[in-house]
């Protein structure tokens, strides 16, 4: 049986060339990790190896594969600003991280002392055996057991949600500051608790990696609470919702989170569509280059 030809593989092309003879699927190929890296090098900008590995996972090179996306390129062309909501564009992990870093800088230093956050890809990477040990090592450097709140953005199956560790700096048997977990999801119909088994394994391994004294039984009893938060109206808003959850939670989290007072402000009327819309406009006003620095 003859080998199947993969289109234009035999003819090398200059992807940066405006030559109209270049195949249209190649012309459209602008956002794979190779192109991002080439752009940064051309402009003498540096990128860490960790971020390069992240790009390889989130923006693979798809030339010569049958899975190459053939979406119509925006008539607005390539611009610095990313108009997320207006274009109904779902955030990818790179964009999410840029906006989260920018959002984090906007919080006061005093407020940030109670919080830390994990990289949005770490949970997904933890689910892969080959990268699990690395993820646990990275988390160890975040000193999460010294913080009242740990924000864990999660992206699985193309959907964003927010996991929050509360009072992991306290004894698991504390009666006044009970450690617990919150899972905020703007798409309740997707069944947020489908992640519970993986979350509990994730948490147990974090405790184990840090040589904590808590037993498996105690760790397994940490409550996982899923408040009924405002819901997205389309399939593209989940990343923006998670950023807004983070923004509001950091601003309004109680000094001591109590299960007796749950869900606090986190209910279906937590915020208005207008408030969410204004927040998205703030995101749209941030040039990608500014968010990266």
TrEMBL record:
Q: Does the record bear Endoplasmic reticulum in its keywords? A: no
Keywords annotated in UniProt: Hydrolase, Protease, Thiol protease
The entry assigns this protein to a family as follows:
Belongs to the peptidase C48 family.
For this protein, the record's InterPro entries field holds: Papain-like_cys_pep_sf, Peptidase_C48_C
**Which residue positions does the secretion signal occupy?**
none
Biological processes annotated in GO = protein desumoylation; proteolysis
Q: Is Chloroplast found in the keyword set? A: no
Full protein name:
Ubiquitin-like protease family profile domain-containing protein
Q: What Gene Ontology molecular function terms does this protein carry? A: cysteine-type peptidase activity
Domain Ubiquitin-like protease family profile, which positions?
Answer: 45-249
